[in-house]
Amino acid sequence: MPELPEADRQFCLVHLLRELEKVDDRNGNADWQAFARLLRRLVRDGIRLRKRPDFSPEKYASRIRLINRRLNKLADDAADGVYDDADARRLGERISKHRDHLFTFLDKMEVPFDNNHAERQVRPAVIMRKNILGNRSAGGADTQAVLMSIYRTLRLRGHDPTKMVAAALREMLTTGKLPPLPAEAVAEG
């Protein structure tokens, strides 16, 4: 998967929908219900729009503009105190803060609306942490996070992580500097 610029970041809509469900279970306030209904429909409309390859580019762009207008109104209403409910205000502030990254996937076809790929990538580190009964210190946790990030990056770029880390450590011992992470491996053949 290619690296994306910061401007192409996507807020995970699956997590947002899950949070709406979680708050629904404990909050029956009418303001919350009104806010949640609008946000849920907005997110689902965005996801459905992405699945409409039959739209002309003009119609697709028009629908994106409508979704963005609805998003801005909902975020602005929440920021302006239209909703008295604390959960609606809290989530409204979050969507206001991340509004530029809620529907990136509509403009950038290579960007998914969820972060399932990223979560699958960190899963091995989470399983390892559970198997070794956690990290013993904050420093240990930081070290594991850095090492797993390097390991997964090298693996995704087609390198053998053990060989690359050993080579980097040899270079550091020789030159005093760590080399940068290598780019994608070139397939031989």
DSSP summary, beta strand count: 0
Unreliably modeled segments: none
Largest sheet: none
**Average pLDDT level:** 85
Distance between the termini: 22 Å
What is the helix tally?
8
Q: Can you tell me the overall shape?
A: extended
User: Per DSSP, what share of the residues sits in E-state strands of 2 or more residues?
Assistant: under 5%
Q: Helicity, in percent? A: 55-70%
Radius of gyration: 22 Å
Key structural traits:
about 65% helix; 8 helices; 2 domains; mainly alpha; about 190 residues
Write a brief caption for the model:
By secondary structure, the protein is mostly helical. It has helices at 13-26, 30-50, 57-79, 86-97, 104-107, 116-131, 138-156, 161-175. It is built from 8 helices and no strands.
Describe it.
With about 190 residues, the protein is mainly α. It contains eight helices and no strands. It folds into two domains: about 10-105; about 115-175, no CATH class. Helix 2 (about 30-50) runs antiparallel to helix 3 (about 55-80), helix 2 (about 30-50) runs parallel beside helix 4 and helix 7 crosses helix 8 (about 160-175). The model has no long low-confidence stretch (mean pLDDT about 85).
